[in-house]
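Reviewer comment 2.1 asked that we show a complete input and output for one of the modelled complexes. We chose the zinc ion case, as it is the one discussed in the main text.
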Amino acid sequence: MSAPAPTIAAIATAPGRGGVGVIRLSGTHLLPLAQTLAGGKTPVPRTALYTDFSDAHGLPIDNGLLLYFAAPASFTGEDVIELQGHGGPVVMQMLLARCLELGARAAEPGEFTKRAFLNNKLDLAQAESVADLIDASSQSAARMALRSLKGAFSQHIHALVDELITLRMLVEATLDFPEEDIDFLEAADAKGKLKALQTQLHSVLASAEQGAILREGMNVVLVGAPNVGKSSLLNALAGDDIAIVTDIAGTTRDTVREQITLDGVPVHIIDTAGLRDTDDVVEKIGIERSHKAVQEADVALILIDPREGINAKTRAILQSLPAGLKKIEIHNKIDLSGEAAAMLSDGIQTASGADTLIKLSAKQHQGLDLLKQALLAEIGWQGESESLFLARSRHLNALHSAQVELENAALCSNTQIELLAEHLRLAQLSCSEITGEFSADDLLGVIFSRFCIGK
Ligand code: GDP
Ligand code: ZN
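Response of the prediction step:
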């Protein structure tokens, strides 16, 4: 038996003022603590108790609801108490201080979810989806995170692992009967089973890669000479997007960056006009952000006035772009020339070296849909479907490793049974890392430290 886990407490609601604020506690045998907080009243599990929350002298700090969840029927699998008080920062701090006084310690980020994982309430992929759901930046991403939280992704991984185990049992059985190995594996159609596994893994990986697009979103930078229409295009794209959120911290609109949603994919667009030298401190910070944005960009939109072509300044900016950055060339202001909006891509020659050319008018909102299509095509987005998983790069890496092991397994000849068995074992290990059946402690540390406190 390990020692009982220490009681942890945290404010679970977001900082600031709200109608209700929630403090969450998790630990072993918390009923006495709940009774003390409730001034002697005994809470019934899973039943709201309306009560004063008392301080050390029995005086009320606040009043509200106390919810008691007895182990193991709780989020963490331990005893859990939730105090729903008035959502002011001072009240919440006083309530939290009272919990600490009663023996709890402040929870680390993600510690509640980590305990849920350690107590087998969630597997690792599900635990991660808790954070993904909270961080979701589009409705599609939120829907997908919830599906993963409910175990959809994990089920696919478990199915893969089950198939792998079946095949490994078959292969390893032949190791014990070396004379019959080849016949035995052929009779059991080991190669056919391996092929089917590869197909199954391939389809999970494809869904995960699409989901990763939705999770990470797409970073787009606008590049071009002054007056070519960068700000106008940014505004046109943002103005078209009715789902845009303007009043949430971190999504405030400014003149150089917007976040829009294209077919559920969050798209961050940055106008790199900020990329000029300055001594102004505030502006300097903006410029550093812009440089970082270019380094992290997936796609660059290169705006050109077709009457002027690429000037020296734009050419210098183009040369400073990272080598792997995808490019779309845009000829703006077609309303002035009377040209029609168009998208050209097959075998075209562009001044910037981009493979796709869009002719549009930012001002008249002509050709914007073509641009949106082109953006989604650049990152290979195929549209949301029920089968996508909001995968993280950790998941993709593990699936890729498993894929390599299966490829190596397929290369094994009929006489390399031990090698075949080893590749299958490693493939299984990679898959199991996703759900956390085999994971190092430091990996857990990395994953949970990125959660917010109280989760
Ligand atoms: P930026 O310096 O690249 O950000 O360019 P702006 O967006 O500020 O635009 C410069 C000027 O070009 C402004 O007067 C815009 O109204 C104008 N402009 C931008 N896009 C269009 C367009 O599609 N058609 C026309 N006729 N004018 C445009
Ligand atoms: Zn501008």
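Confidence is low (pLDDT under 50) at residues 242-254. We note this here for comparison with the apo prediction described in Section 3.2.
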